[in-house]
Amino acid sequence: MTRxxxxxxxxxxxxxxxxxxxxxxxxEAAPGPLPLILVVDDDPGIHEAFKAVLGGSYDLLLARTGxxxxxxxxxxxxxxxxxxxxxxxMDGIEVLRRLRDLNEDxxxxxxxxxxxxxxxxxxxxxxxxxxxxxxxxxxxxxxxxKRVVExxxxxxxxxxxxxxxxxENPSDDLIGxxxxxxxxxxxxxxVADNNATILLTGESGTGKEVLARTIHARGGRAAKxxxxxxxxxxxxxxxxxxxxxHQKGAVTGAIHTKIGKFELANGGTLFLDEIGSLRLDLxxxxxxxxxxxxxxxxxxxxxxxxxLRVIAATHRDLKKAVEDGAFRVDLYSRLxxxxxxxxxxxHRREDIEPLVNHFLAKYNREFNRRVRGFSADALQTLKEYxxxxxxxxxxxxxxxxxxxxxxxxxSRKELPLEISLLGAETTVEEAGRKSLALHEARxxxxxxxxxxxxxxxxxxxxxxxxxxxxxxxxLAWKLRRLGIGEELPA
Length: 490
Ligand SMILES: Nc1ncnc2c1ncn2[C@@H]1O[C@H](COP(=O)(O)OP(=O)(O)OP(=O)(O)O)[C@@H](O)[C@H]1O
Ligand SMILES: [Mg+2]
Prior knowledge:
alpha/beta, 5-stranded parallel β-sheet, 21 helices, 46% helix, disordered N terminus, disordered C terminus, binds adenosine-5'-triphosphate
């Protein structure tokens, strides 16, 4: 507890405070709403004094009575309460006791002229952060407030980090030299530093999330959290709590107050992934949050100001969802400020080789291997394949190939069957366009056909042979000839 006395002031006069004390607070201005401080004192001079000391660096609310203080705490997301003990009506200790039920996160500093050790001890027991006597030292109170704000920021950061530990390191750079990727790099550079909402579209595995992280990392909010929510992965009934948080006891099983992703991302970037699968009622709530720039926890009465950048992503056609009535048009236009579409990998095949090399280096490092590369025909096959799972699929294939590689160079046979045998989906037209020799086209078709039958019967060779009208031994021979046999599950 700090009880030092220095700058004396008279309540109605302007408070003398050293200029540098305010400047040092102001320089720490970072994106995000200012911390909200509630000053509770029946002396208007104290209100004025705190306005002079804290204004600019903090948002202030002023209350003259305990009841006013409680009403404000119930409706606003107060970070810190500077509380006088001797108040008309309800005294400070009673206010403190009731505050705890309204907002368990708000910190309280008792600021009082009553020098009573008993009250101080009681206040601390009731959870006050500290206790200062009037007249107070400006440096001291500023330092205390700073500690409170830092403690709260730290607490949020711990929550944020806890939600992030299971994620892979995102530091990998974006790879791609195709004209479309070059355009994307330029676009990223242009949008990173403003706050415009971004809507990322692209097939699964095209890199929507890496792109969102890159935009965040290159912008002015990089030091603040990047928080991702996958709207499709969380059951609808839990999603609201996940996004907005909930108050203790608000829903069954809510034993503690939970901070939602909007609050965790405050000051930073909120990545709303798979936004296309959001239920209509939640779409309305998100729209409201974005319009009002504030949210309410489930079961809560207070509003929390939010200041963040939103990046939304979907692999669905949102415009069509709007036409079908599955997606709100107002939310769509609010999200679609800067639309960015990432093309599928098969439309930018120039990127395949650099990506292959990138993942080769990555998995050599990871598995401590020294694979030098792919044989010419293996690489050709990788370039021809259509990559329905895009970059994620490519990465998985390279990971597997490096892990299982027998020598320094990975051959075409070491690639998974669907890729090594078929290359791109071979239709009759395609075989003609690629000028395949008849026997090559026939082999590819045969392999494609056999594999699809095998898949259908879950690799039961007897069933497959019956469907194909072949003897089981004839099928086994064909499989060996096509190089499929060795890899068949027993
Ligand atoms: N340009 C790129 N350079 C390097 N790696 C990339 C690139 N794009 C994507 N990746 C990698 O591909 C994988 C898939 O990317 P990401 O998760 O961002 O895709 P997505 O579009 O969000 O997919 P989904 O719709 O399935 O969630 C990740 O491992 C990512 O690191
Ligand atoms: Mg994703």
